[in-house]
Design goal:
Blueprint lengths: L11 H14 L3 H23 L2 H18 L10 H36 L8 H18 L3 H12 L4 H8 L3 H18 L5
Helix pairs in contact: 1-2, 2-3, 2-4, 3-4, 4-5, 4-8, 6-8, 7-8
């Protein structure tokens, strides 16, 4: 850095963000609102780039700002600007959310694979009866979903179509299909909580 430039921490933006964060640490809701207005668009765009899902990105943004509110007092300005701290929080939360969604998708894929490979009728023995009961529960849970979510999940997991193929087949935007699958998986998880 050349001698005539001031360090980043003295720029008006950094000072303002740091001052706002100190006020947030004191419980100042107006400062929190101003900080939200300054950072939310950038943080949302970072999250949506990682997750590729506006609803998930909105959830992450909410989590990040709750964390900023809760942890504002622990912010250490010597470790960087508030903006960088918020970006790091957003990136980490988005990656965590992506991992969680992947685990859910894998669970549903395994559950639907079990439904496909489990015979409906078999000997009335322990493991076979349990598998048949499990398959029946998965079918009931699928039947309990709204039609648009069930249709998207069945095409994806039972029909083997990609989300793009489902979008084309149903004549719906790709984002809509992704949201339906995500919401359907979340509902399935709740409906199948006793079997997980």
């Amino acid at each position: 850095m050349s001698a005539h430039l001031k360090p980043d921490t003295e720029s008006p933006v950094a000072v303002d963000d740091a001052a706002l964060l100190r006020r947030v640490a004191g419980g100042d809701r107006d400062a929190f609102s101003l900080l939200y207005d300054r950072l939310s668009v950038v943080l949302f765009s970072i999250s949506i780039r990682i997750l590729n899902d506006p609803k998930e990105a909105e959830d992450v943004l909410q989590d990040v700002f709750v964390q900023i509110w809760d942890k504002a007092a622990s912010y250490d300005p010597s470790l960087g600007r508030p903006f960088n701290w918020a970006v790091t929080l957003t990136r980490n939360r988005s990656i965590d959310r992506l991992r969680m969604l992947k685990r859910r998708y894998e669970f549903i894929a395994e559950a639907t694979e079990s439904v496909q490979t489990t015979p409906l009728y078999g000997p009335e023995s322990g493991p076979d009866v349990y598998q048949r009961d499990q398959a029946s529960e998965v079918r009931k849970a699928l039947d309990g979903l709204p039609l648009d979510q069930r249709q998207a999940l069945e095409l994806a997991f039972l029909g083997g179509l990609t989300q793009v193929e489902i979008s084309v087949q149903l004549g719906q935007p790709l984002g809509t299909i992704k949201a339906r699958i995500r919401r359907g998986l979340l509902k399935l998880k709740d409906l199948l909580a006793d079997w997980i």
